[in-house]
């Protein structure tokens, strides 16, 4: 079992809140990712889960048992969790065998030597490293070290495994392969994984649910698809990938259908679905988030009522093309398959896919807030 | 492929001790030890200088400025320290530059010579120079007398000049170490960009290189100054026979019966304040104007081709080390093998008898050897354990007050050996428990003296270890203590072995504190050497000295083999 209940978790450094009132409820056997820009408090959260840091406020409860509160923290060695560190933290003076066997040797009542040997052997097979028992970590490649770190943390069969950017030190190709392996291990073991990363691609491809964080706060906790297509706010939309943020105004509200009609700065009307929890009124200023792949462009500029724009910049990425368009003074980024060939200065007609656009109440300085976070 | 079984539901395991509680216990224990070792004697020293427990007065300090034999000691000390600093700077900087920046032949030999000059205890160099340059009987004097038919040789090591020279020989290494590190860290790119702009080589050196390394040079010179202030052994051997007193030797002589505690403590305080003041200046200099690191992280170094000056430079450097390192060792070895210094060199004057005598026949030196080994092993072991504890608390435990321990452990840097001994005498003589006049007081003295060294060794070893290694052990189920024993300590082993051997050799050569604290039966080898040299038995003293040098070399060599790195700075 590995259900985790995090309530109002807060950690301060000086007067800066590294983690700020975090609420999370994680079900047993799920793959959860904490996602957010560097410095948003992911590591601090994970280390509070592990028992290395005492929260200033809030509690962490695992399977109904309160493990952390400002008054009492059950020490890491008594939590029965596993953890994979960003730098792997393999012990350089111990062989692969002794690295992996360590957690088993610590168990009370003591395990028989034969059992330890058998379980280490089986575990090394799971991570595809049989026969590496007598090597030292210094004699392994980055990917192999990563596997040993995984094996070491899994061999004790923890109910919860914490992983802090475990793939960030690997090169791109190896990262893709390890991503699949980690996912495969999680599926097979049914251990609750709490995975930290700042890479939204990694988060989306692996997780059952993603907790998007920024500035120590939880912005959204939902399935990858939803976080991507139905972001809870502008910050999430922006963090999940390239997005056009367009200013508009609400012209009508259809409450039963949870839809609004919005007119954009350049005159286009869009009928958009409202995200849960978003309330807008007629006349409100709003921000409309549209991903580049949800805009279609056609070269022919003759269609009467279609939007017309000029191509100002083109980027060819092989399988995809990115274009920057100038739409009556508004910049619009679009993405197309690479067989759509456009050049700078071409005049094109533009079509926005309303189903995948999101609308948010305009915060006065939403744009600048996002810019700050990027820094 | 195997599948992993599910872990059964269960509440987390519970430990009997919260780690916060045990962390505080450890902190408290370490703090208590440091308070007893460092603060307790310091307290009695300060109190004693103000007249002790009965009435507080500054009369002792007034005596320091009024009584000529007290302030003259201060003047001599300043004179010697200044002289030694100047000599060390003048000799050390060129040597460092040759090592760092030129194609001088045999750089490794120069580094080794520097280390040797550093590791020879001062009182052993002094004894070697007595053998060489004592008026009338000194070998060099005899040589010159015979060559030129003089009645009296020209050298007299029993003089301010002699003391200053011998002092500088033991401290030139500070300048060479720090200056080499500073020069190594100045990237030659900086110099070459100036050269490209048309500056001549000389202009580059004066305009770019020296301004960059000057703070480090000044800092190293101040270090020499502080080191020279605290020296006892060489100043006693070369100064006391002719009534040239320095602060440490004056303090020592004030303890002769009847002891004058008042003057001794006041002089000690003067010495402490002087030391602390200069150390403070030195730190500030390094902090404020540190363009260069003193850790010697090498940038790209262009080597100056000395051309036809290569060999002259080689000769000049080794000529200096002839006096600072080679001659003292050679003289001690030769003297230890002669029947009598007066008989001149010849096969019939060679003998092993001195070694046989000090090792197998003379009970004082036998006893002293055993005592020294016991003390060196226990002080090094206890010291490095305490050092590791302080470093660990300071770096790893997130407990309030951890920094205080680190500060406490640096206080002894400001306490010259003789001063520390004065404090210990005053502190422990009044206690009913049998510490004073036993080996324990010596052990306490060594622990206190070398705790800064121990903490620094352990600290730098611990800094190399990523904290996540210990955390990985905790989350794998290892308790706090278990994680330290299984992970942290084994990884610190190299640094701890290095620290251990440094303390070991320092203890073997310790005379300044020992001389005031030993009692009959508890002599150390250093005490035996000092006492027998006062009585003029230089052949037997030389044999003992060679044994000390051998032990030093063997321990440092073994440590180097074990840790794969040089234990001293290089
Ligand atoms: N020990 C610490 N002392 C002070 N500030 C810290 C400490 N650890 C983390 N922080 C601050 O807390 C914030 C969150 O850090 P962290 O959890 O490491 O972020 P992330 O892992 O998401 O990159 C950062 O602003 C960081 O500077
Ligand atoms: Mg992090």
Give me the Rg of chain B, rounded: 26 Å
* Strands of chain B, total number: 0
Q: Any idea what the radius of gyration of chain A is?
A: 25 Å
Please give the share of residues in helix of chain A.
10-25%
The CATH architecture of the largest domain in chain B would be Orthogonal Bundle
- Overall structural class of chain A, as computed from helix and strand content, comes to alpha+beta
Q: Could you list the spans of chain B in which at least 5 consecutive residues all have pLDDT below 50?
A: 1-17, 292-298
The shape of chain A, in one word, is elongated
Q: Roughly how many Å apart are the termini of chain A? A: 40 Å
Please indicate the percent range of residues of chain A in DSSP E strands (runs of 2 or more): 25-35%
Question: How would a crystallographer describe the biggest sheet of chain A?
Answer: 6 strands, mixed
What helical percentage do the residues of chain B reach?
over 70%
CATH class of the largest domain in chain B: Mainly Alpha
The CATH homologous superfamily name of the largest domain in chain A equals: P-loop containing nucleotide triphosphate hydrolases
Ends apart, CA distance between termini of chain B: 52 Å
Individual helix count of chain B: 23
List the strand order in the largest sheet of chain A: 6-7-8-3-9-10
Describe, in short, the structure shown.
The complex is a heterodimer of chains A (375) and B (570). Chain A has helices at 42-50, 96-105, 113-126, 142-154, 172-189, 200-206, 224-229, 234-239, 366-374, and strands at residues 4-13, 16-26, 31-35, 57-62, 65-68, 81-84, 160-164, 192-197, 209-214, 217-222, 244-254, 259-264, 269-273, 285-290, 295-298, 307-316, 320-327, 330-337, 347-352, 358-361.
Question: How would you describe what is shown here?
Answer:
The complex is a heterodimer of chains A (375) and B (570). With 375 residues, chain A is an alpha+beta fold. Chain A has two domains: 4-235, P-loop containing nucleotide triphosphate hydrolases (Rossmann fold), CATH 3.40.50.300; 242-371, Nucleic acid-binding proteins (OB fold (Dihydrolipoamide Acetyltransferase, E2P), Beta Barrel). In chain A, 25% of the residues lie in helices and 35% in strands. The longest helix of chain A is centred in the middle third of the chain and has 18 residues, at 172-189. Chain B has 570 residues and is mainly α. Chain B folds into two domains: 60-336, MetI-like fold; 349-570, MetI-like fold (Orthogonal Bundle). Chain B contains 23 helices and no strands. In chain B, helix 5 packs antiparallel against helix 23 (538-563). The longest helix of chain B has 34 residues, at 68-101. Classes of the chains: A alpha+beta (375), B mainly alpha (570). Chains A and B meet through strand 6, helix 3 and helix 4 of A and helix 19 and helix 20 of B. The site of magnesium ion has 2 residues of chain A, from helix 1.
């Amino acid at each position: 079992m590995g259900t985790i209940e995090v309530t109002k978790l807060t950690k301060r450094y000086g007067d800066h809140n590294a983690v700020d009132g975090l609420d999370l409820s994680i079900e047993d056997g799920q793959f959860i990712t904490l996602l957010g820009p560097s410095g948003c408090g992911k590591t601090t959260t994970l280390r509070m889960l592990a028992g290395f840091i005492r929260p200033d406020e809030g509690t962490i409860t695992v399977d109904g048992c309160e493990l952390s509160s400002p008054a009492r923290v059950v020490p890491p060695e008594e939590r029965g969790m596993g953890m994979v560190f960003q730098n792997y933290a393999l012990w350089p003076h111990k062989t692969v065998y002794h690295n992996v066997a360590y957690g088993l040797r610590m168990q009370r009542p003591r395990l028989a030597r034969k059992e330890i040997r058998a379980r280490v052997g089986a575990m090394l097979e799971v991570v595809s490293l049989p026969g590496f028992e007598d090597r030292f970590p210094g004699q392994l490649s980055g990917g192999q070290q990563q596997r040993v770190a995984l094996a070491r943390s899994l061999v004790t069969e923890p109910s919860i495994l914490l992983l802090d950017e475990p793939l960030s030190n690997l090169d791109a190709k190896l990262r893709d392969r390890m991503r699949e392996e980690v996912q495969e291990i999680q599926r097979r073991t049914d251990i609750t994984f709490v995975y930290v990363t700042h890479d939204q691609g990694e988060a989306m491809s692996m997780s059952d649910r993603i907790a998007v964080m920024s500035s120590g706060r939880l912005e959204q906790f939902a399935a990858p698809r939803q976080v991507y297509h139905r972001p809870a706010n502008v910050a999430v939309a922006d963090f999940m990938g390239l997005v056009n943020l367009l200013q508009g105004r609400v012209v009508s509200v259809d409450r039963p259908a949870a839809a609004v009609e919005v007119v954009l700065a350049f005159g286009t009307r869009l009928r958009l679905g409202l995200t849960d929890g978003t309330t807008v009124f007629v006349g409100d200023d709003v921000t409309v988030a549209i991903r580049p792949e949800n805009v279609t462009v056609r070269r022919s500029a003759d269609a009467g009522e279609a939007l017309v724009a000029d191509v100002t910049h083109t980027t060819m990425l092989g399988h995809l093309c990115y274009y920057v368009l100038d739409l009556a003074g508004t910049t619009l980024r679009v993405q197309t398959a690479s067989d759509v060939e456009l050049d700078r200065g071409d005049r094109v007609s533009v079509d926005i896919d309303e189903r995948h656009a999101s609308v948010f109440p305009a915060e006065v300085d939403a744009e600048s807030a996002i810019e700050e976070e990027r820094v | 492929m195997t599948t992993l079984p599910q872990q059964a539901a269960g509440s987390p395991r519970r430990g009997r001790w919260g780690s916060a509680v045990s962390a505080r216990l450890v902190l408290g224990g370490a703090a208590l030890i440091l308070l007893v070792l460092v603060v307790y004697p310091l307290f009695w020293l300060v109190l004693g200088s103000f007249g002790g427990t009965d009435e507080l007065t500054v009369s002792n300090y007034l005596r320091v400025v009024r009584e000529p034999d007290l302030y003259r000691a201060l003047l001599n000390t300043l004179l010697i320290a200044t002289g030694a600093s100047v000599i060390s700077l003048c000799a050390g900087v060129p040597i460092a530059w040759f090592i760092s920046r030129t194609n001088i032949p045999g750089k490794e030999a120069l580094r080794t010579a520097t280390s040797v000059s550093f590791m020879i205890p001062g009182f052993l160099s002094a004894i070697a120079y007595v053998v060489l340059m004592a008026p009338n009987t000194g070998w060099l004097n005899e040589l010159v007398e015979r060559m030129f038919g003089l009645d009296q040789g020209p050298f007299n090591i029993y003089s301010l000049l002699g003391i200053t020279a011998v002092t500088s020989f033991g401290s030139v290494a500070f300048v060479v170490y720090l200056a080499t590190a500073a020069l190594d860290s100045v990237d030659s790119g900086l110099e070459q960009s100036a050269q490209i702009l048309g500056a001549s080589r000389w202009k580059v050196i004066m305009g770019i290189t020296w301004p960059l390394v000057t703070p480090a040079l000044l800092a190293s010179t101040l270090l020499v100054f502080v080191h020279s202030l605290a020296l006892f052994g060489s100043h006693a051997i070369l100064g006391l026979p002719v009534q040239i007193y320095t602060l440490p030797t004056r303090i020592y002589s004030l303890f002769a019966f009847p002891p004058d505690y008042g003057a001794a403590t006041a002089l000690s305080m003067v010495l402490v304040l002087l030391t602390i003041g200069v150390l403070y200046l030195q730190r500030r200099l390094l902090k404020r104007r540190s363009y260069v690191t003193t850790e010697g992280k090498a940038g790209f170094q262009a080597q100056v081709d000395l051309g036809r000056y290569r060999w002259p430079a080689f000769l000049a450097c080794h000529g200096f080390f002839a006096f600072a390192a080679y001659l003292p060792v050679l003289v001690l070895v030769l003297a230890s093998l002669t029947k009598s210094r007066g008989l001149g060199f010849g096969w019939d004057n060679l003998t092993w008898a001195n070694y046989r005598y000090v090792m197998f026949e003379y009970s004082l030196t036998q006893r002293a050897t055993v005592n020294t080994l016991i003390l060196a092993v226990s002080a090094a072991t206890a010291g490095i354990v305490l050092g590791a504890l302080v470093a660990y608390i300071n770096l790893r435990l997130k407990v309030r007050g951890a920094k205080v321990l680190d500060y406490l452990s640096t206080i002894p840097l400001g306490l010259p050996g003789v001063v520390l001994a004065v404090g210990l005498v005053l502190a422990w003589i009044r206690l009913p428990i049998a510490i004073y006049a036993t080996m324990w007081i010596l052990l306490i003295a060594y622990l206190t003296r070398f705790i800064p060294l121990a903490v620094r060794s352990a600290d730098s070893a611990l800094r190399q270890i990523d904290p996540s290694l210990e955390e990985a052990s905790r989350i794998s189920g290892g308790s706090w203590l278990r994680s330290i024993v299984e992970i942290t300590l084994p990884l610190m082993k190299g640094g701890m072995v290095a620290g251990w051997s440094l303390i070991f050799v320092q203890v073997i050569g310790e005379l300044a504190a020992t001389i005031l604290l030993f009692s009959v039966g508890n002599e150390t080898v250093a005490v035996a050497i000092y006492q027998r040299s006062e009585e003029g038995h230089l052949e037997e003293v030389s044999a003992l000295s060679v044994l000390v040098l051998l032990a030093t070399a063997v321990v440092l060599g073994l440590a180097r083999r074990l840790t794969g790195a040089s234990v001293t700075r290089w």
